[in-house]
Amino acid sequence: MEQTLLIDGGLGRVICAIPALEKFIEAHEQANIICYFWTPIIWGNKLLTPRTFDNQTKGLLERIRHTRISRPEPYYNNDYINENCNLIQAFHQEINQLTEILEPAKLYLSRQELLINSKVRSDKTKKVIALQPFGSGAQITADNVLDTSARSLNRLTLQMLIRRLRQENYDIYLITDKPIPFVNSEDFIKHQPKQIRDIAASIAHCDYFVGIDSAGQHIARCLDKPGSVIMGATSAVNTSYPDYFNIIETNTEKTYMSYRLCEFDFWLAEIENSEILNLNKDQARIICDNVIDHIKRTT
C-alpha cells in the first residue's frame, strides 16, 4: 500500500522536514505528501514538488483514499524530548526510522525571484541585516510584546538592537507581518514582500541574519547566511543550529517546553519561562554587543 504523509505546523517545521521527505520519496516514489499552508517553500525541488500537495487541493481525497495516511510528529521523538537531536533529525527518525545526520534543506529560488527581491539592497555600499524579532504567536501592544512561548524580543531589546545596527551604518530588512507602534519605520528598508518565497529571496540578498527561534533562522541556515539567534524558552539543540549560528542564551535555567505533549507540563513551563526575554537595559546591551561583534567578525 502506498503512503501519504501529513506535514503540519509552522513554516520552520516544514523546512526542517524537507531533508527527511527527500529520503522518503527516494524510497517511495509514488507516495504523497500533504503540507498545510507552506507548500510554496518546497516548489522548485524536483524530487518533492510532483508528490507534494496543499491540503486545499481539489480532488485530494481520491488521491489519498486508498493510501496509508500518517502524521509524523518530531515533538514525540525520544531523542528530541531529551535534547539529543534537532528537528531535522527528529523528522528523519520519525519518517524514515533512520538516525543518520542530514544536512539542512536546500531552497530552490528562481532567477526572477532573486532579481525582483534584490531591491532589499537599496544601497549597495551597506551591509544588510535581516532582522526577525518576533515569533508567530507574538502580540504587539503600544508598550511591549506579549508572547506566551517566550521567544520574542521585548520592546527595550528591539529598540536598542535597531539603534545599534543603525549606528554601525547597517541597513535593516525587518521580517514581520505585525505593525510595531514603538519603532520608527524610517529605520528599515522599504522593501516588504508578502509571499514566503519572496521573503526567502530577500534573505538571500542579506549579509547576515539576526533573530529568534522562528522560520527566518531556518531560511537563513538553508541559504548559508551567518547569523545570531537569541534563544528564549525553546531549546537551541532542538530548534536551532548551535554548530553554525552564534547562539545567544539569555537563561540556561529554563524549563523544557513539551510542545504537543504533556499539556499541563507545557502550561507550567510557559509560566516559569515567561520572563526569560523580558530583559533589562544591561542585559539587552550585552546581547547587542554580542550581535554587533559577531557581524563584524563574519561579514
Task: Describe what this molecule looks like in 3D.
Helices cover 35% and strands 14% of the residues. It has helices at 11-27, 60-64, 78-81, 87-96, 111-116, 155-167, 196-204, 215-222, 236-239, 263-273, 281-298, and strands spanning 3-7, 32-35, 52-54, 68-70, 128-132, 139-140, 145-146, 171-174, 208-211, 227-231, 246-249. With 299 residues, it is of the alpha/beta class. The longest helix is centred in the last third of the chain and has 18 residues, at 281-298. The mean pLDDT is 96. α1 (11-27) links the parallel β1 and β2. The strands form three sheets. Strands 8-5-9-10-11 form a five-stranded parallel sheet, with helices on both faces. It starts with a strand and ends with a helix.
The quaternary state of the protein chains shown equals single chain
CA(first)-CA(last) distance: 51 Å
Order of helices and strands: EHEEHEHHHEEEHEHEHEHEHH
State the secondary-structure class: alpha/beta
Defining traits:
alpha/beta, 5-stranded parallel sheet, 11 strands, globular
Structure in a nutshell:
With about 300 residues, the chain is an alpha/beta fold. Helix content is about 35%, strand content about 15%. Helix 1 runs parallel beside helix 4, helix 1 packs across helix 8 and helix 6 packs parallel to helix 11.
Secondary-structure blueprint of this entry?
Elements: E1 3-7, H1 11-27, E2 32-35, E3 52-54, H2 60-64, E4 68-70, H3 78-81, H4 87-96, H5 111-116, E5 128-132, E6 139-140, E7 145-146, H6 155-167, E8 171-174, H7 196-204, E9 208-211, H8 215-222, E10 227-231, H9 236-239, E11 246-249, H10 263-273, H11 281-298
Parallel strand pairs: 1-2, 1-4, 2-3, 5-8, 5-9, 9-10, 10-11
Antiparallel strand pairs: 6-7
Helix pairs in contact: 1-4, 1-8, 6-11
